[in-house]
Amino acid sequence: MQRLYILALGFVVTLGGALGILMYVSLIPFIHYVGIAVLGLLGLGAGCVSLLMAAYTYSQVGVMLARRKQARYCERVIVAGDVVAYLTDQGQLMHLSAEHERAKLLPDQTMVVGAAAAQDDAALKKDVVQLYLSGNSLREIAAMLGISYYKAQKWAKEADIARYGAIEG
């Protein structure tokens, strides 16, 4: 098996060498053009390497400036366990851990219901009950007063319960 490998390797090396010599001999008349092409290829490679070096240098300068800026900010940060504070320019401590926890919370949601809105609802409810007791349909009442059908139905049901009592069933 090893003899076969050595024979195959010898054949490939001989064939490759012969092919290389044949190419060299056939390119002798064009050696000037080949030289110019190789020179262009080397120039292109040198240009790409110089651009790569410039880009690497630029990125390293950016990294160094970022580290310098971070170090300047970290001079004012005080860490004690899980508590982190920042010393402001005025000499006050800003509790960063508390700020972080506060950012997780939603702001207080307060619903403002004015007294006028409650009075308007009471007046509308009275009108709905009067119109309902006079025989108007709930759809007509909702259209006349500009309220939803659901509100008219709810207030009319409350009027029925007040009038006849709760219906059990």
Notes on the structure:
This protein has 169 residues and is mainly alpha-helical. It has three domains: 46 residues; 29 residues, no CATH class; 49 residues. Helix content is 72%, strand content 7%. The protein is built from six helices and three strands. Helix 4 runs antiparallel to helix 5 and helix 4 packs across helix 6.
Number of strand segments: 3
If you average the pLDDT, what whole number results?
86
Instruction: Name the quaternary structure.
Output: single chain
Largest beta sheet: strand ordering: 1-2-3
Order of helices and strands: HHEEEHHHH
CA(first)-CA(last) distance: 100 Å
Shape: elongated
**Percentage of β-strand residues:** 5-15%
The largest sheet, given as strand count, sense and whether it forms a barrel, is: 3 strands, antiparallel
Number of domains: 3
Classify the secondary structure makeup into a structural class.
mainly alpha
Discrete helix count: 6
Based on CA atoms alone, the radius of gyration comes out at 45 Å
Q: Estimate the helix proportion, in percent.
A: over 70%
Low-confidence segments, ≥5 residues, pLDDT <50?
none
